[in-house]
Amino acid sequence: MSRHKFRGCTIILSPVQTADGQWTCQYAISEFGNPESASKTGCPDGTFPSCLKAEAAALTQAQLLIH
C-alpha cells in the first residue's frame, strides 16, 4: 500500500497480484487529514505485468478523477 498527495487529496494505492502472476491495483481518494473520507474508489481496467505498472495506471486514473 502506498499514499500519494495530489491537489488537496490523498490517493491510497493497494496493488494485488492475481493467480496468473499479473497485477491489478485499487485506488481510494480521500481529503487531506481525513483518511476515513474515501469519496471515490476504483481500479483501472485489465491487469498489468508488474506491480509498478499497475500502480502507475491506478494513480493516473485517480488523478484524472480529481481534476
How would you describe the overall organization of this protein?
It is a single chain. The chain is elongated. Strands 1-2-3-4 form a four-stranded antiparallel sheet, covered by helices on one side. The chain is of the alpha+beta class and 67 residues long. The chain has one helix at 51-66; strands at 2-6, 9-17, 23-31, 40-42. It is built from one helix and four strands; from the N terminus they run E-E-E-E-H. The longest helix is centred in the last third of the chain and has 16 residues, at 51-66. The chain is 24% helix and 39% strand.
Q: What is the end-to-end distance?
A: 23 Å
Helicity level, as a percent range? 10-25%
Largest sheet: spatial strand order: 1-2-3-4
Class based on secondary structure composition and strand pairing: alpha+beta
For the biggest sheet, the summary is: 4 strands, antiparallel
Order of helices and strands: EEEEH
Radius of gyration: 12 Å
**Overall mean confidence score, pLDDT:** 91
Number of helices: 1
Strand content: 35-45%
